[in-house]
Amino acid sequence: MAEYDYDLFVIGAGSGGTRAARVSASYGAKVAVAEEYRVGGTCVIRGCVPKKLLVYGSHFSEELEDGKNFGWTWENAKFDWTKLRDHVLKDVDRLNNAYTDTLKNHGVEIILERAELAGPHEIKLAGGKTVTAKYILIAVGAWPAVADFPGSGLMSTSNEMFHLEALPESIIIAGGGYIANEFAGIFNGLGSDVTVVNRSDIILRGYDESVRDRLIQISLAKGISYKFNCTFDRIEKRDDGALDVYMDGKKDPVRTDIVLAATGRRPKVDNLGLEKAGVATNDKNAIIVDDYSRTNVENIYAVGDVTNRVQLTPIAIREGQAFADTVFGDNPRTVDYDNIPSAVFSQPPIASVGLTESEARKQYGNIKIYSSDFRAMRNVFADRAERSLYKMIVEHPTEKILGLHMIGPDAPEILQAAAVAVKAGLTKQAFDDTVALHPSMSEELVLLK
Question: CB of 159 within 8 A of CB of 166?
Fold first, then answer.
C-alpha cells in the first residue's frame, strides 16, 4: 500500500497549477487537481483571454470610422453586446474543455470540488472526503480587492464584467492599474460613458512616466474622463437599479449604471486551511516561498499569484514548470524574474521591458534616452491625431539597453521580439546595425534618435 493517496495534490487548476500537474504526471507522478469552479483559472475563465476578446470587439468603433478614408462605408452599423458577450463565453467554454482534456490525457485526476489543507499532507474536499499527498502545491491565484466603505458591496469586479446583461450607458471605474485602464478602453470603445476614479494622481504605477502620460492624453481625447486624488464616500442604489456615487465629500452624487472596483488583486487564501498545515504568509496574506516555490512546510509548495511575486500568467506557468522539474524531474530549477516583458491592453496598448527612466537613473546614474514620437501611417491616412511613443533607455557610455517602453498600435506584438534583445544584454548598436523593415511601425525601433 502506498503511504499517500497521491504523489502530488494541486489545489487550483489555473495556469500554474495545470502546468505543474501535467508535467509532474509526465514524470510518472500520481497527480490530482482540485478546482472549485472551472479548469483554466483567472486568465482563461475571467481574465486576460476573455478581456482581450472584448478589446478586439471594442476596436471596431474606431475601425469603422477610420475606414471612411480608406473608401469603406457602412450603413446602419450597430453593436450587439449580448452577441459579443455570448461568443466570448463560448470561447471560454472551449478553452475550459481544452485545459480539461489536456490534464486527462496526461493521467491527471480532476476533482471539481473546493479543497483546503487539513494538515501538512492532508487535503479536505468540500464533499467531506479527506485525501493525502506526499507533496501539495497551492495554486489558487488571486481575487479582486474591494475597498470597505458604505455601499462598497454594490461595486462590481472584473469577474462580473464578462456576464453583464446589458452594456452600461455609463460606468465608473475605481483604480489606476492595468485592469482599470483596459476596461476603460473597452467600454469607451463599445459606447459607454466612462469615468476613471483614482485615489492618487498616478496611473499604471511601475510603468514609464512618458508612456503613462501619453495614455492619459489619448484617453482624454477619446472621451474617457479622469478624477484624480479622489476617494469614494458611499454608494447608494436607486429604485431603478442605477447607482448614486458620492465622492470627495461632495453633496451631489454622480449617477451611473455600474461601479467597477479595479483597485488590485489579493492572494486568494481565505479559508484555505493554511494555519492547519502551518504554512506562513506575509503581511499581504501572500504565501511565503523560497526560490524553488517551497513554503516553510517542507512538502508544501505554492506558485502563481497566491505568492504575490509577479502577477502574470506566463510567470505562473514558468513557476509551475520549474516546480515539476525540481520535485519530480530531478532537475532543480528556479525562475528568472529579471527583464520580464509586460503589456497593458489599453487603447492604444502599452508594452514594456526592463527599467523605466526613473529606475535607470537611480540604479545607473548616467543614462541616455532615445525616442521616437510619431503618428502611425494608418492614423495619418485616417486623419487620426493619435501619436505613438517608443522609448529606449541605455547605460552611458556602454549603450547597453536597460529598458524599452512603447505605446501605440500593436506595441505588445512588436515588443515581444525586442524584449529578447534586452534580455540578452544587447546594446543600441545592435539595433542600429539592423536594417529597417519598411514601411512598418516596428522599424522605429532601429531608427531611434
Answer: no
For residue 357, the domain's CATH number is 3.30.390.30
Answer whether residue 214 is part of any domain: yes
Quick check: bond before 397 cis, omega within 30? yes
State the residue range of the domain holding 83: 6-144+266-327
- What CA–CA distance (Å, rounded) separates 207 from 177? 10
Residue 427 in domain: yes
pLDDT of the residue at 10: 98
Kindly tell me the sign of the dihedral angle through the C-alpha atoms of 185, 188, 192, 197.
positive
Cβ(405)–Cβ(370) below 8 Å:
no
Shared domain for 164 and 254, answered yes or no, is yes
How many other C-beta atoms lie within 10 A of the C-beta of residue 201? 10
DSSP string computed for 306-335: GGTS---HHHHHHHHHHHHHHHTSS-----
Element (H, E) at 8: strand 6-11
- What confidence score (pLDDT) does residue 75 get? 87
Between CA 33 and CA 393 the distance in angstroms is 44
Rounded distance between C-alpha atoms, residue 106 and residue 77, angstroms? 47
Query: pLDDT (tens digit, 9 = 90+) per residue, 79-135?
Result: 999 999 999 999 999 999 999 999 999 999 999 999 999 999 999 999 999 999 999
Q: Are 297 and 305 in contact (CB under 8 A)?
A: no
pLDDT of residue 94: 96
The CA distance from 198 to 175, in Å, is 5
Domains identified in the chain, total number = 3
Instruction: Specify whether 161 is located in the same domain as 121.
Output: no
In contact, 24 and 7? CB cutoff 8 Å: yes
> Does the residue 341 lie in any domain?
no
DSSP 3-state assignment of 172? Answer: strand
If DSSP codes are grouped into helix, strand and coil, which group holds residue 442? helix
Q: Omega before 348 cis (within 30°)?
A: yes
- Asked if the model's pLDDT at residue 1 lies above 90, the reply is no
All 3 cell numbers of residue 31?
Answer: 497527480
Query: Which active-site residues does the annotation give?
Result: 438
d(CA 246, CA 354): 40
Cell numbers of 2, please? Answer: 502506498
**Is 113 found in the same domain as 58?**
yes
The answer on 160 and 139 residing in a single domain is no
Please state, for a pLDDT cut of 70, what percent of the chain lies above it: 100
Q: Which run of H or of E encompasses 352? A: strand 350-354
